[in-house]
User: What shape does this take?
Amino acid sequence: MVRKNYSEEQEKMARFAKAMGHPARIAILQFLASQECCFFGDIHEELPIAKATVSQHLKELKEAGLIQGEIEAPKVRYCINKENWKLAQKMFADFLGQPICKKESCCE
Amino acid sequence: MVRKNYSEEQEKMARFAKAMGHPARIAILQFLASQECCFFGDIHEELPIAKATVSQHLKELKEAGLIQGEIEAPKVRYCINKENWKLAQKMFADFLGQPICKKESCCE
DNA sequence: TTTGTTGTTCGCAAAATTACGAATAAAATT
DNA sequence: AATTTTATTCGTAATTTTGCGAACAACAAA
Assistant: This one.
């Protein structure tokens, strides 16, 4: 068994994907992408979960780099992190768009 | 707090993303996408983890619909599930490609 | 300064994930 | 029939995730 580590690329893909791996976080991203202004409360209103849980999901998305938040006391404004969003867009497009084996002998 | 459920679309996105949310599974998908033939042993060789763990990851990818396996005794051939792969491609492209708020007042 | 609003953090519990070696299953080979 | 090859399943442990209410922090408003 070849003890090969995962590449940075693979780790990064997985990081993005994991952050998107919960319906609440997909909903948050979708909402943020569609909103001009995006306070915590607005996001909480959209979701069927407690605010503590919303806060947790936001933290994960922030740590994955997909969103950013800034305090606008006493509120907090959340937004898509556009730079990383674009990066994710490219990475997923490249990953899922790579040519798949077309041989008849394989997997029909 | 509006007790709104997540949409089928959101659940499906999250399901795909979650399946891709581990570097081992990213590596598996990458390997499968690049190979004509893809037996369990070949995949195991590529990864720094025990076969039981590989088997588990393959099971998750299969259950998420991203891959398929068929027995070719005593081996098992694994392949990308092309139909769902395409679906994922479209869903991620649509999701990450959706227009993001461009207002100056928002998130600069 | 007291009160109210807004979110985060804490503490906890339940469930899911990740990982491994051992045991097992299934079929080909000897 | 016994053995070998190949991969899954079992049993277990450690860690992470998900979720909640309560407590807390930070600042605005009265």
In short: Chain B has a mean pLDDT of 91.
